[in-house]
Specification:
Largest sheet: 4 strands, antiparallel
Radius of gyration: 17 Å
Distance between the termini: 38 Å
Shape: globular
Structural class: mainly beta
Number of strands: 13
Strand order of the largest sheet: 4-5-6-7
Order of helices and strands: EEEEEEEEEEEHEE
Strand content: 25-35%
Length: about 180
């Protein structure tokens, strides 16, 4: 995966080769993730045996992924080995609580990045949280708990399919699904 629509100096390389046999009994399958310098072709492994796909932030400053085993969003600055728990401090589950498969559930999803890679939006069952990719500021519930209070699933509606990150000053269009009335 090329970073910044092919304009970054790095790319992510993902392989499932070491875990192919395990996919017959361990779902979803595992993968290893590498950062590749697109100018030199040199690569270095940054994640081992993760189950959910890692990705680059829009400006390729951060790598982020859902940690299925621990039920949390994680990230790390490109070039750093320090892993930041993006969702640390969110007091509600970020995994699908109704999922009854024989393996750990996936997340409720991410709602994208804020311009300048300044924050990553994370969904819980009802609301949307703004997380800090540096891990310095606690997550902030940008829907102010309205979803949970009214039993509404609030989700960001991306009107522009080419949008790579959202302007935090722009109005936020949300869809709302009532769990009470459907």
């Amino acid at each position: 995966r090329l970073g910044s629509e092919g304009n970054a100096d790095i790319a992510l390389g993902i392989t499932t080769m070491p875990y192919r046999k395990e996919t017959s009994w361990d779902i979803p399958g595992y993968q290893d993730v590498y950062v590749i310098d697109v100018k030199t072709g040199k690569s270095r492994q940054i994640l081992r045996r993760v189950q959910d796909r890692a990705a680059l932030s829009p400006q390729s400053r951060y790598i982020y992924w859902w940690n299925r085993e621990e039920g949390r969003w994680c990230g790390r600055k490109v070039g750093s080995s320090a892993i930041v728990e993006l969702s640390k401090g969110i007091p509600f589950p970020l995994y699908n609580e109704d999922d009854d498969h024989a393996f750990k559930p996936g997340s409720y999803g991410g709602a994208g990045w804020v311009k300048g890679d300044k924050g990553f939006l994370v969904n819980d069952r009802f609301d949307i949280w703004l997380t800090d990719p540096e891990g310095k500021r606690p997550p902030r519930n940008i829907t102010e708990g309205t979803g949970r209070a009214d039993s509404l699933r609030l989700r960001y509606v991306r009107l522009d399919p080419d949008e790579r990150s959202r302007d935090p000053e722009a109005p936020l269009l949300l869809s709302a699904h009532s769990f009470r009335t459907k």
